[in-house]
């Protein structure tokens, strides 16, 4: 809220002694400083999110070990001091990037699932989206890349990826249960096992594509998976 200068002068003149005037001015400046800090914090939060997205692109392209601090700060358009003061070191930045990536990916997955006409269609769309990411995305699945590169020896990353896997598994299992109820999937099939099978298939396809660069092979495996769960 903006206060007119005349109003502030009036408030100062109402104070009869030098002491009360000083006290009023001190409190006024404290309040102004507090409001300025609040605005700065909001701006930094917004800029931090933008910077994390830029850093995530670097990790996508170069991996954790391949990305240098210079690569990251150049992409984020900040200096190393600002990075350390706002986020921390390279590892903390990477953790933030993975956390942000998995949260956004889960939001998108739930949104896409809710738009599908049937539960089975939602599952098929999920599988096909994963195939398209592996084959055609310039930046393939960051979670799978991270699993292969650093997760085995990094407890913080392990925790994030495990949480993401659990959420993905739950989403798929819920869709499979609904598909069974609507007789799109055999009622004898176990939702937990099918969800495990689908998720492990994605990791295998990613590894296969890295080794062989054969999109036809990946599409055939996806088609087989869809046919298998639809019987």
Explain how this protein is built:
- The chain is mainly α and 231 residues long.
- The protein starts with a helix and ends with a helix.
- It is 83% helix and 0% strand.
- The longest helix is centred in the N-terminal third of the chain and has 49 residues, at 18-66.
- Helix 2 (18-66) packs across helix 3 (69-76), helix 2 crosses helix 5 and helix 6 runs antiparallel to helix 10.
- The protein has 2 domains: 1-88, Arc Repressor Mutant, subunit A (Orthogonal Bundle), CATH 1.10.10.60; 95-230, Orthogonal Bundle (Tetracycline Repressor, domain 2).
- The chain is built from 10 helices and no strands.
Structural class: mainly alpha
- Give the beta-strand count: 0
CATH topology of the largest domain: Tetracycline Repressor, domain 2
Total domains, how many? 2
Q: Which percent bin holds the helix content?
A: over 70%
The radius of gyration is: 26 Å
Report the total helices: 10
Instruction: Describe the main β-sheet briefly.
Output: none
Give helix and strand order, one letter per element, not per position: HHHHHHHHHH
Span from first to last CA?
A: 65 Å
Please name the fourth-level CATH homologous superfamily of the largest domain: Tetracycline Repressor, domain 2
Give the low-confidence spans: 41-46
Name the overall outline.
elongated
CATH-derived architecture of the largest domain: Orthogonal Bundle
The proportion of strand residues reads: under 5%
- Give the CATH level 1 class of the largest domain: Mainly Alpha
The pLDDT mean sits at 85
